TrEMBL record:
The keyword Signal does not apply. The lineage of its organism: Bacteria, Pseudomonadati, Pseudomonadota, Betaproteobacteria, Burkholderiales. The keyword Methyltransferase does not apply. This is Rieske 2Fe-2S domain-containing protein. Pfam families: Rieske, Ring_hydroxyl_A.
Length: 442
């Protein structure tokens, strides 16, 4: 690596960042080590591996990993590598391996926690350094694995904060997503959408709380929704969720943006929380919760009205419409998005249908809304490859951010506080070794 720490530190200033952090392959490689090699990263939800032998593959930074339900019911996360010749052990996707894993190359077998079970023709190993109990002959587990209300995270670092400390105020969004289920539990249902964006992963995180873009980037979809509603003489849910982006600046200015350590945060929701008990779907949802918790508590749960939450490095859970957009960096200019939709256990089916409608209309590859964002991310990537300037601006309401006991809060809903917070965290990840809890030596 030729870039040193003082140069990295220079790339992030309080109100601007250098464009190379989006485009430079060397910086991307360092991010894989210092962000994705350390932070707690969302692997998947426990409901994706219900039975022993079920697996779900994914990536933590540039590492292929799999989440696997053990015979003892525990969820394990191991690298997708056979310790013999290094073959990727299971194919990418979801499946069930049965009682044990068997490598398709030379048939070494492994227990469901990745430890070596047997090798064929074992006599051939006698007199060599092969030792079944030596970890080098087993699939390697991730350094730390933990689950928060069914959401499984892993860290490649032994050191650093525990998962709850790491999540901080963002844990409240996972709590609220689960609490919206009368049983307090959610499950991934209906497979996932995948979208490959031709842009750097950080651009998407910035956009999640970028209120200034909504009435501009999404003009075509909110205008179409308004025309359709005028023709029909009503604004059904399907149009309402597109119409929301067309609110005037004064609306966005009043929203609250919260920022937490490690780059996390959330944006206050853009839909009216009192609607929670007015439309028919919200009404039956409210009733199912009230039956279990009483009306006051049900109102409190549905009244927590967060739009996109950012869990930096992992993606964005949306509590009200029950989804998790998982963000996986692939290359400096490639980012894979996986959209999971959740069913709230015990809630009326209409609530899940509504979440699917939201995912389909707003975020899916065929939606009317998200492709406009994705095109703008691509343009940012392309523009930053030109010699047309060096810096990316995060000046809006700079210097006005208010400190709270948990983090920071914006003074105006159009503030670029979320971007400033994300990049302050980025700098900290990039300059700190969690195993040492001290600065990397340049
Ligand atoms: S590479 Fe897996 S058994 Fe040989
Ligand atoms: Fe957008």
């Amino acid at each position: 690596m030729s870039i040193n720490n003082s140069e990295i530190a220079q790339l992030v200033q309080p109100d601007r960042v250098h464009k190379s952090i989006y485009t430079d392959p060397e910086i991307f490689a360092l991010e894989m080590q210092r962000i994705y090699g350390q932070a707690w990263i969302y692997v998947g939800h426990e409901s994706q591996v219900k039975k022993p032998g079920d697996y779900h593959t994914t990536r933590i930074g540039d590492q292929d990993v799999l989440m696997l339900r053990g015979s003892d019911g525990k969820v394990n996360v191991v690298y997708n590598r056979c310790p013999h010749k290094g073959a990727q052990l299971v194919p990418l996707g979801d499946g069930n391996v049965g009682k044990f894993l068997r490598c398709p190359y030379h048939a070494w077998t492994f227990k469901l926690d990745g430890s070596l079970l047997s090798v064929p023709l074992r006599g051939g190993m006698e007199g060599t350094a092969f030792n079944k109990d030596d970890p080098m002959f087993s699939m390697r587990p991730l350094a730390r694995v933990d689950s928060y209300r069914g959401f499984v995270f892993a860290s490649q670092s032994e050191g650093g904060p525990d998962l709850v400390t790491f999540l901080g105020g963002a844990a409240g969004s996972i709590d609220n997503l689960c609490d919206r289920s009368p049983e307090g539990e959610v499950e991934v249902v209906g497979g996932v959408f995948q979208v490959m964006q031709q842009s750097n992963w950080k651009v998407f995180y910035e956009n999640l709380h970028d209120t200034m873009h909504a009435p501009i980037t999404h003009e075509s979809s909110f205008m179409a929704a308004r025309e359709e509603a005028a023709e029909r003489g009503e604004m059904p849910f399907e149009l309402l969720i597109m119409d929301g982006n067309g609110e005037p600046y004064e609306f966005w200015e009043k929203l609250e943006l919260c920022a937490y350590p490690y780059g996390h945060g959330y944006m206050e929701a853009i839909f009216d929380p009192t609607a929670a008990t007015r439309d028919p779907v919200s009404r039956v949802h409210f009733e199912s919760l009230a039956k279990v918790h009483g009306e006051e508590k049900a109102r409190e749960i549905l009244g927590m009205n967060r739009h996109n939450t950012v869990i930096y490095g992992s993606g964005s859970p949306h509590t009200v419409f029950q989804q998790f957009r998982v963000i996986r960096p692939i290359a400096p200019d490639r980012t894979l998005i996986e959209i999971q939709t959740f069913r709230l256990k015990g809630a009326p089916e209409a609530v899940f249908d509504r979440a699917l409608t939201y995912t389909n209309l707003i975020n899916s590859p065929s939606s009317n809304v998200m492709p406009d964002d994705v095109e703008l991310y691509r343009r940012c990537q392309q523009g930053n490859l030109t010699a047309g300037g060096e810096w990316v601006s995060h000046h809006r309401y700079g210097g006005t951010d208010k400190q709270t006991p948990e983090g920071m809060v914006s003074t105006n809903g159009t503030s670029e506080l979320p971007m400033r917070n994300q990049f302050a965290a980025w700098k900290q990840y990039m300059l700190t070794d969690w195993n040492q809890e001290k600065k990397h030596v340049a």
